[in-house]
Here is the input.
Amino acid sequence: MKKICIITGSRAEYGLMSRLMKLIQLEKEFQMQIIVTNMHLSPEFGLTYKEIENDGFIIDKKIEMLLSSDTANATVKSVGLGIIGFADAYEDLKPDIILVLGDRYEILAAVSAALLYKIPVAHLYGGEITEGAYDNSIRHAITKMAHLHFTSTEEYKNRVIQMGEQPSTVYNVGALGCDNILKVLLLSKKEIEQSLNFKLDEKTLLVTFHPVTMENNSAEIQIQELLFALDEVKKVRIIFTMPNSDTNGRIITKKIRDFVERNSDRSILFSSLGMKRYLSTLKYIGGVVGNSSSGIIEVPSFHIPTINIGDRQKGRIAAKSVLNCPPEKREIINKLHLILEPKFKKQIKQVDNPYDKPGTAEEIIRILKQQKIQLIKEFYNIKDKT
Here is the structure.
């Protein structure tokens, strides 16, 4: 029986993987192990490991690594603590393969430890570009330490091969988030409004804003510009979700809390919605604002607009419903007025989502069953066509 170890450190990442985890759990030839770490174990971020347990999963290891600071110094030390914790976890669990998603620093710690333990790594989602975040470099580093690659588009697949990975180990499977939209039974409008205690309609927006980690001291300025814009567009109601545990994330949280306190009649803040509530919310609102990858990957499947602010997601393939916008008050206001126009909403009703490929989770399991992983990797050279 193959021991597949799932590693998760954030609410968003778990939400994407949760259905895949349930399918892995049902496979007789797999023994699933789960390691949770980082934000999942933090009271500040909602102790979201409890969501995993409430979904019926058994957590095999909890690795504390998140320090109570959001400085670069604390983030680096968190990576070090993570590597120590993963070393002990791998020593006990002895997984045959670890499955990780994304590009965050806790995943870098997990994969770095796996490399030295000679544990093969399956990675979702390499080949993507996010020029405004150090996650971009982390993602590429994980690709070079991974042995099996699941990408979300054909272009990203080709980029992973361009990085020297063998084509036989790289698969375009589409995005799990889009697959979840098709497979998960979402809440009705009445159910989700009752759950959130908040009214949802075309003038309700969901806002998620994270630090742009490759820029210095921009978090406070950029979130303030966004909040100034939302202050002026009084006709919208706003659901905020908290930023990740990245450097300078706390100033964003503080600014949002202050805004919600001043605008309690039309705004609300959640540390975590969970996958089902998050997707259900998207079904009944007018659009998404911020700089989260979800605004680019999952949101277009609901045929609602995204205002993508700043450079954090710069370089990602995006649907025509995604409007890029500099982090400036006046520009954000203009985009807010645009996405609220019925004419614009009508234009994006038929938009194609480049990340949508039905059957993503099932395809990943099929490949995990069949793929024979070679621990020693050879660099694949793309021959010069000239």
